[in-house]
Amino acid sequence: FPGADGSPFRRVVTEFGQSLHAKSGWLASRVEYTKPLSSGEGQIATIHFGADVCLRQCYTAQHRRRLEFYDAAKFTPKEASSESPLVHVHIAGPLCFEGDTLTKGTEAPRLSRGDIVVLREAGANTLSLYSRHCLRQVPPAYGYRLGRGERGAVEVSEWLVLKPSEDLEGCSRHWGWAAPSDPPSKRIRVEV
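^ that's the sequence the OP posted. Answer follows.
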């Protein structure tokens, strides 16, 4: 250790990537499907991101993130009601294996198709670790600027596309396949 007798190190340099960047981003998805748990005591809600974008959050217990749930019609936090009682919810991603879950057994109001799931602290170790399992295209990344509204409240004043979503040609090129717009000189010929 630096400063200890016999230590070859004079100082410690650390990388604070997660602690500095995690809170700078979030992910949001509409709920695509819901189905009841086999026990009948809750539900599975399938969304459009999971282990493809959140590898560490799905595979390890040390990288859990806050999840928030919003009503599809009102865009307000989802609250328990007679139509949406508190239940045990599993949030599943779009990939085709059981490990693609962001949480299991979270107590939340019953979700419906179209409701919104937000994962907080997604500014680190998400898109940089993107998995192309199932040939999924890389999603877009947006940024926004905050400003003061007419009544002085802080609100989003501008949305920016930081990185557009990947198109089919980009996905094809990643795997070494020729895209229809590629010139013949860039196409790979495979003899079978």
